[in-house]
């Protein structure tokens, strides 16, 4: 399957009320970001942000170093149109996460509803390596739980328990918050998510030298 074509078609032909991931207010993601207690110029990237309104609220709260990545140009364009002049406050990146090469590190790496679409072991490992290398403070993720959907937008997904997410991040992150939460879709069905907020473990140079 041509993934890019798939997502371009979705955003070209469906309104926000016709896709399951739409949230009027992304309360959970906002709360988890706020709990990190960042300075306003901290770098935040929203992976697969598409036309999510999360970026609108982050702008409103005064964050100034914001990036949205999505595979779909149509999704990003819809967000830009919605934001109007405020779209200039955001860096927009059109890229498949599987081929994304960041040019900077991010204080927060946020991903709601992208990770579960990565189903191949090698691609999952590359994603974890990206997060580890390019996140300096907190990794915030929302992904389908073990009782969540097995498919989304016609695509197979991979489901995760809290423990599985924690194990995937290995020694690089420490779990600080985790819970399961139902998301009510625009068409009144429920999708159960696993949310986790994980703090980057910083190994001091002194400890590193001792291990060497």
Tell me about this structure.
The protein is globular. It has one domain: Rossmann fold. 31% of the residues lie in helices and 28% in strands. Helix 1 packs parallel to helix 4. Helix 3 links the parallel strand 1 and strand 2. With 212 residues, it is of the alpha/beta class. It has seven helices and nine strands; from the N terminus they run H-H-E-H-E-H-E-E-H-E-E-E-H-E-E-H. Strands 3-2-1-4-5-9-8 form a seven-stranded mixed beta sheet, with helices on both faces. A two-stranded antiparallel sheet has the order 6-7. The termini are far apart.
Could you give a quick summary of the protein structure above?
With 212 residues, the chain is of the alpha/beta class.
Question: Secondary structure elements and their pairing?
Answer:
Elements: H1 3-13, H2 27-35, E1 43-47, H3 54-60, E2 65-70, H4 73-83, E3 90-94, E4 106-112, H5 121-134, E5 135-144, E6 151-152, E7 155-156, H6 162-168, E8 173-184, E9 190-200, H7 205-211
Parallel strand pairs: 1-2, 1-4, 2-3, 4-5
Antiparallel strand pairs: 5-9, 6-7, 8-9
Low-confidence stretches: 204-212
Trace the largest sheet across and list its strands.
3-2-1-4-5-9-8
Total of DSSP H or I helical runs spanning 4+ residues = 7
CATH superfamily: Vaccinia Virus protein VP39
Number of domains: 1
The portion of residues assigned to helices is 25-40%
What is the CA-based Rg, rounded? 17 Å
CATH-derived topology: Rossmann fold
DSSP strand count: 9
Please describe the biggest sheet, giving its number of strands, its sense, and whether it closes into a barrel: 7 strands, mixed
> Distance N terminus to C terminus?
45 Å
CATH class: Alpha Beta
Q: What is the H-and-E element order?
A: HHEHEHEEHEEEHEEH
Structural class: alpha/beta
Can you name the CATH architecture?
Answer: 3-Layer(aba) Sandwich
Strand percentage: 25-35%
Q: Tell me, rounded to a whole number, the average pLDDT.
A: 93
Question: What global shape is seen?
Answer: globular
